[in-house]
C-alpha cells in the first residue's frame, strides 16, 4: 500500500464513494490506485469548476461528502467559484489537491504555487499530508471536518511523494460530529419574545429549511406567526404535501416592504439578512427600523429540534398548513416565456425530482408555476457565483440515480461551465437541461439601472448582451454528446419536456425566451 492507496481506502471506509476529478501528473498515483478500489466512482470533469460544483450537488443530496481530485494550485483555482457556492451552502466536500513532491517544492517549478493561501478562504479545514504515514489519519480528519457542523469544503493537499511512497496501516474511521440542540434558555427567550411581539416573523436558513424542520415551522405558521426563508437555500423541499414559507425578496427594498411593521425577527439556522449588493442611499441590513432580532439556533445547532421545541413552548397546533397539489389545467400555449416553461414542468415533473436552479432572471417565473407541483427538492445558487446549475445537476444525479434531475440555467450562466454537458453524456446521467436563451445578461441590465450607473451606451451594451453571434445551444449541446431541441412556443416546450420526463438519460432543451 502506498499513500494514494491509503487515502482512497480511508475515504471508502468513511463512505466517501464518488470522486469528481480533473487530474494531472502529480495525481497519477491516485488515478492508478482507483483500479484497486472499484467502490470509488471516478467521474471525469473537463473543467475544475464542474468538478467542484458536482461535488456540491452530490453533498447536498447525499448528506455526505464526495471528493474532488484537483491538479495543484491552478487546478484548485479553476474550481474556486463553485467552492465559494458550496461554502455558502455548507456542503461537505473533501478536496484532494495534488502537489509537487515535498523535495521538489524548493525549485519553484512552473506549476508551483502557495496552495495553503489559495485554499484558505473557501476551506473550513486545510492540511498537507507531507509524509505517507500521515495520509490515512489526515484523510479521516478531513472527512470529519467537512461535516462541521454546519459543514463545508475541506482541502487535503497530497504531495506526489506522499502518494507514491509506502504507507502501512489500516484505514482510519472518522467520527462524524453531531449538531447540538439549542439551549432551553434560547427556546424560552424566543417563545417569550414571540408572545410579546405585535408583528413577529421567523426567518429560516440552512438545516431549518429541510423537511423535518419545515413541519415544525408550519406549526408556527398555524399559530399566526409569519415564516420566511433566506432568499437562496442549499436544499429545500417544494411542491405538494409540504409547507412552503415565504421567501425573502432578492431586491432589498422589496424585502423591506414585505417586512414593514415587523417588530421581531427570530433567526433559525441563519443570520441577520443583508442586501446582496450595496446601492446608493439604500440600507445594507434588511431588518426594519425598530425591529428586534433574536437567535433561536445558530447554524451549527439542530434547527429541527429547536423549531419543534419552540412550537411546543408556544402551544402551537400539532400540524400546520401544507401545499395542495395544484397541477395546471392545460398545456401552455403561445410565445414561450419562463412562466409557460414552468407550467410544462409542473405538468410533467415526476415526484421526487431534483431541481438545480441557476436560471437567474427566469427562475422566478418557473418558481411561481411549480409551487403546487408534485413534491420535489430545490437546490439554489447559495453563493451568487453563476455557473453552478449544470455541475450541481451532475452531482445530484450521481448521488440519486433513481431520481429525475432538472438543471435550469440562464444562457450566460450556462456558458461558465458548459463542459458539464460532456460529463452528463459520458456518464449517461438522467438529467434534463433547460437553458433559457434570451441572449443577454438581463440581470446586469437591471442592476446597472439600480446602481445609478445610468443607461447603457454602445460600449456598455457590448458587455451586457450575449448576441452577435447568438449562441447556437442546440449545436453546442449535440457537439458535447446530448440530444437537443430548441423551443420557442409553449406547445413545443411542453412536448419536449414531456418526452424528456418519459425517458432516461440526458436531454437538452433550449428555451428561447
| CATH homologous superfamily heading of the largest domain | Thiamin diphosphate (ThDP)-binding fold, Pyr/PP domains
Individual helix count:
21
Number of domains: 3
**Helix content estimate:** 25-40%
Compute the gyration radius: what is it? 24 Å
Spatial shape: globular
The chain-level mean pLDDT equals 96
- Give the total of beta strands: 18
Structural class: alpha/beta
Low-confidence stretches: none
CATH architecture field of the largest domain: 3-Layer(aba) Sandwich
| Strand arrangement across the biggest beta sheet | 9-14-13-15-16-18-17
- The end-to-end span amounts to 56 Å
* Share in β-strands: 15-25%
Describe the structure.
- The chain is built from 21 helices and 18 strands.
- It has 513 residues and is α/β, with parallel strands linked by helices.
- It has 3 domains: 162 residues, Thiamin diphosphate (ThDP)-binding fold, Pyr/PP domains (Rossmann fold, 3-Layer(aba) Sandwich), CATH 3.40.50; 130 residues, TPP-binding domain (Rossmann fold); 175 residues, Thiamin diphosphate (ThDP)-binding fold, Pyr/PP domains (Rossmann fold, 3-Layer(aba) Sandwich).
- The strands form 3 sheets. The chain has a 7-stranded mixed beta sheet with strand order 9-14-13-15-16-18-17, with helices on both faces. It has a 6-stranded parallel beta sheet with strand order 2-1-3-4-6-5, with helices on both faces. Strands 10-8-7-11-12 form a 5-stranded parallel beta sheet.
- Helix 10 links the parallel strand 7 and strand 8.
- Helix 1 runs parallel beside helix 7, helix 9 packs across helix 12 and helix 13 packs across helix 14.
Amino acid at each position: 500500500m502506498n499513500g494514494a492507496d491509503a487515502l482512497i481506502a480511508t475515504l471508502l471506509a468513511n463512505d466517501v464513494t464518488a470522486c469528481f476529478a480533473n487530474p494531472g501528473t502529480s495525481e497519477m498515483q491516485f488515478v492508478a490506485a482507483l483500479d484497486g478500489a472499484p467502490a470509488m466512482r471516478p467521474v471525469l470533469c473537463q473543467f475544475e469548476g464542474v468538478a467542484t460544483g458536482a461535488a456540491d450537488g452530490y453533498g447536498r443530496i447525499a448528506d455526505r461528502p464526495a471528493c474532488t481530485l484537483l491538479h495543484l494550485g491552478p487546478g484548485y483555482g479553476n474550481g474556486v467559484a463553485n467552492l465559494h457556492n458550496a461554502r455558502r451552502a455548507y456542503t461537505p466536500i473533501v478536496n484532494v489537491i495534488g502537489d509537487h513532491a515535498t523535495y521538489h517544492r524548493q525549485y519553484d517549478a512552473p506549476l508551483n504555487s502557495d496552495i495553503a493561501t489559495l485554499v484558505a478562504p473557501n476551506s473550513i479545514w486545510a492540511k498537507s499530508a507531507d509524509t505517507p504515514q500521515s495520509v490515512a489519519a489526515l484523510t479521516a480528519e478531513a472527512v470529519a471536518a467537512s461535516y462541521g457542523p454546519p459543514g463545508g469544503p475541506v482541502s487535503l493537499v497530497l504531495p506526489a511523494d506522499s502518494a507514491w511512497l509506502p504507507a502501512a496501516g489500516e484505514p482510519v474511521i472518522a467520527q462524524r460530529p453531531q449538531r447540538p440542540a439549542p439551549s432551553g434558555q434560547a427556546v424560552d427567550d424566543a417563545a417569550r419574545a414571540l408572545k410579546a411581539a405585535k408583528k413577529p416573523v421567523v426567518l429560516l436558513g440552512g438545516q431549518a429549511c429541510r423537511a423535518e424542520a419545515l413541519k415544525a415551522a408550519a406549526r408556527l405558521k398555524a399559530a399566526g406567526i409569519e415564516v420566511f426563508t433566506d432568499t437562496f437555500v442549499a436544499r429545500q423541499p417544494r411542491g405538494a404535501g409540504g409547507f412552503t414559507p415565504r421567501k425573502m425578496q432578492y431586491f432589498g427594498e422589496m424585502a423591506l416592504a414585505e417586512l414593514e411593521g415587523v417588530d421581531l425577527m427570530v433567526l433559525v439556522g441563519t443570520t441577520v439578512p443583508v442586501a446582496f449588493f450595496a446601492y446608493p442611499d439604500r440600507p445594507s441590513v434588511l431588518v426594519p427600523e425598530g425591529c428586534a432580532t433574536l437567535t433561536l439556533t445558530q447554524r451549527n445547532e439542530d434547527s429541527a429540534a429547536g423549531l419543534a421545541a419552540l412550537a411546543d413552548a408556544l402551544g402551537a397546533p400539532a400540524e400546520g398548513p401544507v401545499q395542495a397539489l395544484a397541477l395546471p389545467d392545460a398545456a401552455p400555449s403561445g410565445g414561450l416565456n419562463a412562466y409557460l416553461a414552468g407550467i410544462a414542468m409542473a405538468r410533467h415533473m415526476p415526484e421526487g425530482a431534483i431541481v438545480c436552479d441557476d436560471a437567474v432572471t427566469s427562475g422566478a417565473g418557473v418558481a411561481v408555476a411549480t409551487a403546487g407541483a408534485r413534491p420535489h427538492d430545490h437546490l439554489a445558487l447559495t453563493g451568487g457565483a453563476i455557473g453552478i446549475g449544470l455541475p450541481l445537476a451532475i452531482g445530484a444525479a450521481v448521488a440519486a440515480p433513481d431520481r429525475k434531475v432538472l438543471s435550469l440555467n440562464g444562457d450566460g450562466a450556462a456558458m461558465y461551465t458548459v463542459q458539464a454537458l460532456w460529463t452528463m453524456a459520458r456518464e449517461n446521467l438522467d438529467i434534463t437541461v433547460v437553458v433559457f436563451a434570451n441572449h443577454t445578461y438581463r440581470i446586469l441590465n437591471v442592476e446597472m439601472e439600480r446602481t445609478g450607473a445610468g443607461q447603457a451606451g454602445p460600449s456598455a451594451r457590448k458587455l451586457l448582451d450575449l448576441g452577435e453571434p447568438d449562441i447556437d445551444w442546440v449545436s453546442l449541446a449535440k457537439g458535447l454528446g446530448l440530444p437537443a431541441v430548441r423551443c420557442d412556443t409553449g406547445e413545443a416546450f411542453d412536448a419536449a419536456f414531456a418526452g424528456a420526463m418519459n425517458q432516461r438519460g440526458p436531454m437538452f432543451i433550449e428555451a428561447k425566451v
